[in-house]
Automatic annotation (TrEMBL):
<comment type="similarity">
    <text>Belongs to the binding-protein-dependent transport system permease family.</text>
</comment>
<feature type="transmembrane region" description="Helical">
    <location>
        <begin position="547"/>
        <end position="570"/>
    </location>
</feature>
<dbReference type="InterPro" id="IPR000515">
    <property type="entry name" value="MetI-like"/>
</dbReference>
<dbReference type="InterPro" id="IPR035906">
    <property type="entry name" value="MetI-like_sf"/>
</dbReference>
<feature type="transmembrane region" description="Helical">
    <location>
        <begin position="449"/>
        <end position="472"/>
    </location>
</feature>
<dbReference type="GO" id="GO:0005886">
    <property type="term" value="C:plasma membrane"/>
</dbReference>
<keyword id="KW-0472">Membrane</keyword>
<feature type="transmembrane region" description="Helical">
    <location>
        <begin position="21"/>
        <end position="47"/>
    </location>
</feature>
<feature type="transmembrane region" description="Helical">
    <location>
        <begin position="513"/>
        <end position="535"/>
    </location>
</feature>
<keyword id="KW-1133">Transmembrane helix</keyword>
<dbReference type="GO" id="GO:0055085">
    <property type="term" value="P:transmembrane transport"/>
</dbReference>
<feature type="transmembrane region" description="Helical">
    <location>
        <begin position="641"/>
        <end position="661"/>
    </location>
</feature>
<dbReference type="InterPro" id="IPR036322">
    <property type="entry name" value="WD40_repeat_dom_sf"/>
</dbReference>
<dbReference type="Pfam" id="PF00528">
    <property type="entry name" value="BPD_transp_1"/>
</dbReference>
<feature type="transmembrane region" description="Helical">
    <location>
        <begin position="710"/>
        <end position="731"/>
    </location>
</feature>
<protein>
    <submittedName>
        <fullName>Phosphate transport system permease protein</fullName>
    </submittedName>
</protein>
<feature type="transmembrane region" description="Helical">
    <location>
        <begin position="484"/>
        <end position="507"/>
    </location>
</feature>
Length: 745
């Protein structure tokens, strides 16, 4: 070889080595970038999700001194936590500044007024704008509502002034017509109805005022009617009206009497309950936000939650859960718009609880000395504490109390439900709605959809892949394999659209035929194969080797057509023309048009190309010397397939199945359009479901950024991420084990 040829050969080798190194660096860099991208996604999801698991905390904001007199009946603040107010049991009201942002020095008194000189009872409404009602010694009552005036200098809201409003009129309202002193009082109202419940030395009465608009003047005219409750034994401690104006609660010691006052002329006693904890006495009862639950505080620190439960056709109050404060509970402060509450126990022990999670979020002794009263701000963002003439303001950091391990992954007993359940219901038209954010129905729906899709796809895809890779002729394979792989390019939104608008109604209309098809197709294919083997050899030899699958095309078409034609005959003969009614009424199975059967078929159709393509490549790639050697040693093609080909191709086949499972778990559009998107938990093939991916697609556009709902949707994405990671990791581990086991063949 000449020197010139040697130099050219060496130059070519250097170029190849440089290209190899460049390719190696490129592949390595690409792999690292993919891993970095996955880690960034992982940590971003954690970053968004982390705040929902942060506990509650209190931060001192201000301490101020305000000269006040008497015993506190009610504390409160405006929505911006800039002004505070205090109503005393003796009939005085004080408004004072909490924050210099109001334009007033912290602690300065903006308004002091005596509302009643002879107040003997006081009550306030439980929901909405606070309304304070004073019962007087002469049997009358005054109703007062605090109002705040805000300005917006430089675009910032500043609450600068406080006033008093008299929504029921400035003239006193006559409660007791005989002029007896009011000892206990409760009040609630709707737009066209007001109810006063009051106790005097003669018993408990109701004043019901109904409003009717005057067509001439447009003013609302109120008519009054008085009703008396049955005689109550013992000294009354509390009267509580529900905002629905249909229930009155009367507490005498530890006994709570529940009266139905929906029809005041026929007041009935619904129940009498001993609501105290064991070996304890009740100190206070309060309505939780929404007024569906009662909070019962005891002197041993136990706070129990009660609400009505439907059992055996009747609704009755039950103790649902208990919370343990560290000391005797002296005051309860329910949150204004959520299912949480604060407690004052002992002298100065403050605790925050949330009912749905059955969790204590915060507990600490604040300061020294005995505290007198507590109140949460309207937005639950501040806690106002009175200690004689000192007032302490704490910022409350408690943005996501409704989210916790219990709410996400355990059964929760929600208000109005007959028992603890897994529930996903993030929104409602009601202002009193409590979000129900269990991820269990969504995870279950994800696995259920994947299960039915794989149940449909795996047998068809693997059987087709094995036949195409081992038995099918090369000429037929060149048509079949690309055709199946082109199916993978179909947009899933098209498949979901067809499944929801065409397949679901077609299955409902021909359900007996579909069930018959599931049985008759395998039998028909088996009989067709047996019939083919029974034919004379001269007839069978006319069909080229590897083209036998063509025989099944007319068989499948004919059986499918026959089942559809027989469907109405079967339905009329066996099910009185209504198979859906038979399933629902006779069997007791709910039937949804867009159900798991539709999802299984549609999503299975989308998964088949993935499984088929990978499995067929694995089968076709089995070395020919293995199959030829097996056949040469006397094994039949079926023995060679089962004992050589499938074992050798098993790593690739398993990878194909796991890739299909990963595709099914992460599918969005098909399950979004082909199911009823109902987050229920059962394996019925005739009912719908909701998956994690579909739930994210449906609810993410309507969720408020940074809200609990928003962050839980990111948590759902994180769970889906973990699902796919686990599936892929397990698949890779098993694939490597199979590869190591059968690579020596």
């Amino acid at each position: 070889m000449s020197t010139e040829s040697i130099n050219l050969t060496m130059a070519g080798s250097r170029k190849r080595r440089a290209k190899d190194r460049l390719a190696s660096v490129g592949v390595t860099t690409g792999g690292i970038l993919v891993l970095v991208a996955l880690l960034l996604i992982f940590f971003y999801l954690l970053y968004v999700v982390k705040p929902i698991f942060s506990g509650a905390s209190l931060e001192p904001a201000a301490s101020l001194q305000v000269p006040v007199q008497g015993t506190t009946a009610m504390l409160g603040t405006d929505e911006q936590n800039q002004l505070g107010y205090r109503f005393s049991q003796q009939g005085d009201v004080d408004f004072f500044s909490l924050d210099p942002a109001s334009g007033h020095q912290a602690g300065s008194v903006l308004l002091h007024q005596t509302l009643a000189d002879n107040a003997t009872a006081v009550a306030h409404t439980s929901m909405g704008k606070p309304l304070v009602i004073y019962g007087l010694a002469n049997g009358q009552a005054n109703a007062i509502q605090p109002e705040f005036v805000a300005t917006y200098p430089e675009g910032q809201k500043r609450v600068t002034q406080a006033t008093l409003k008299y929504p029921l009129g400035e003239a006193p309202i006559v409660l007791d017509q005989d002029g007896h002193a009011i000892t206990h009082l409760a009040y609630e109202a709707k737009s066209d109805k007001r109810v006063f419940a009051f106790a005097t030395e003669t018993g408990v009465q109701l004043l019901v005022q109904a409003g009717e608009e005057n067509f001439l003047s447009g003013e609302v005219e109120w008519g009054s009617n008085y009703y008396r409750l049955p005689e109550i034994t013992g000294n009354i401690d509390q009267l509580i009206l529900t905002p629905g104006l249909d229930v009155l609660l009367v507490r005498v010691g530890n006994l709570l009497s529940i009266y139905n006052i929906a029809m005041p002329d026929n007041i009935t006693l619904k129940a009498s309950l001993q609501v105290n904890a064991q070996h304890a006495n009740v100190t206070n009862i309060s309505l939780l936000s929404g007024a569906s639950s009662l909070l019962v505080a005891n002197d041993n620190g136990v706070i129990s939650q009660w609400f009505e439960v439907l059992k055996d056709g009747t609704r009755s109050f039950m103790s649902i859960r208990e919370f343990q404060a560290d000391q005797s509970v002296r005051a309860l402060a329910p949150e204004h718009s959520r299912k949480g509450f604060a407690t004052l126990s002992g002298d100065n022990h403050i605790e925050l609880f949330y009912t749905t999670n059955h969790a204590r979020l915060y507990a600490e002794n604040l300061g020294s000395g005995k505290m007198d009263a507590i109140a949460l701000s309207p937005r639950n963002s501040a806690l106002l504490i009175q200690q004689e003439d000192k007032f302490h303001v704490y910022r409350v950091h408690n943005e996501h109390p409704e989210v916790g391990w219990t709410a996400l992954w355990s059964k929760v007993w929600y208000e109005g439900y007959p028992e603890p359940q897994f529930v996903w219901q993030s929104t409602s038209a009601s202002d009193d709605f409590e979000p129900k954010l269990s991820l269990v129905p969504l995870a279950f729906g994800t696995l259920k959809a994947a299960f039915y899709a794989m149940l449909f796809a795996v047998p068809i895809a693997l059987a087709g892949a094995i036949y195409a890779g081992y038995f099918m002729s090369a000429g037929m394979r060149t048509f079949v394999k690309p055709t199946v792989e082109i199916m993978a390019a179909l947009p899933t939104v098209i498949l979901g659209f067809l499944a929801g608008l065409w397949l679901a109604p077609a299955i409902e209309e021909n359900l007996p035929g579909i069930v018959l098809m599931l049985v008759s197709l395998p039998l028909g294919i088996l009989l067709a194969g047996m019939g083919w083997n029974a034919l004379p050899r001269r007839i069978k030899e006319r069909l080229p080797e590897g083209w036998h699958a063509l025989i099944l095309v007319p068989v499948v078409v004919l059986i499918g057509w026959g089942c559809v034609e027989l469907s109405p005959i079967i339905e009329n003969h066996f099910f009185d023309g209504n198979v859906r009614g038979f399933i629902t009424n006779d069997i007791g199975i709910r039937f949804d048009q867009r159900n798991s059967l539709v999802v299984g078929i549609a999503m299975g159709f989308a998964v088949i190309p993935t499984i088929f393509s990978i499995a067929e490549d694995a089968v076709f790639s089995v070395p020919k010397h293995l199959t030829q050697g097996s056949l040469a040693l006397g094994a039949t093609p079926w023995q060679t397939l089962s004992r050589v080909v499938i074992l050798t191709a098993s790593p690739g086949i398993f990878s194909a199945v796991m890739m299909g499972l990963g595709r099914a778990v992460g599918e969005t559009m098909i399950v979004l359009m082909a199911t009823g998107n109902t987050p229920i938990m059962n394996m019925s093939i005739f009912e719908g479901l909701r998956t994690l991916a579909a739930n994210i697609a449906v609810e993410m556009p309507e969720s408020e950024v940074g809200s609990s709902h928003y962050r839980v949707l990111f948590l759902a994405a994180f769970v889906l991420f973990v699902f796919t990671f686990i599936f892929n990791s397990v698949a890779e581990y098993i694939r490597q084990r199979l590869r190591d086991k059968y690579s020596s063949m």
